[in-house]
Design goal:
Layout: H1 18-29, H2 35-50, H3 77-88
Helix pairs in contact: 2-3
Length: 89
C-alpha cells in the first residue's frame, strides 16, 4: 500500500546500460534487493553523504569481494531490508 505522503515515480534505462548492470550487482550484493529498493537506498545514501552525515551504521555489512572461484552466501533479503531502514532514520 502506498503512503499518500510519499513521492512515487518510475525510471528506465536501456537494458544493456552499464548503470543498470551496476544496480543489479548492488541488488545482489545486498541480498537480493529489488531495483526500486536499491535505487531508494542509493539516493538516501547519496543525500546523507552530501550533508556530511554518516551512512556507516549498518546492521548488516555488504559482502566483501571474495577470491576467484569462491562464493560467499548471499545476505538474506530481510536482513538487507533491515539495513536499508537504518537510512530512513
Amino acid at each position: 500500500m502506498r503512503n499518500p505522503h510519499d513521492e512515487h515515480w518510475g525510471v528506465s534505462l536501456p537494458k544493456d546500460h552499464d548503470a543498470l548492470k551496476a544496480l543489479d550487482e548492488y541488488c545482489q550484493e545486498w541480498g537480493g534487493l529489488s531495483r526500486p529498493e536499491a535505487t531508494r537506498r542509493l539516493l538516501i545514501e547519496w543525500s546523507k553523504l552530501r550533508q556530511g552525515q554518516s551512512v556507516t551504521t549498518w546492521t548488516v555489512s555488504p559482502p566483501q569481494p571474495s577470491a576467484v572461484g569462491t562464493k560467499k552466501p548471499p545476505l538474506h533479503n530481510q536482513a538487507a531490508k533491515a539495513a536499508s531502514r537504518v537510512l530512513d532514520d
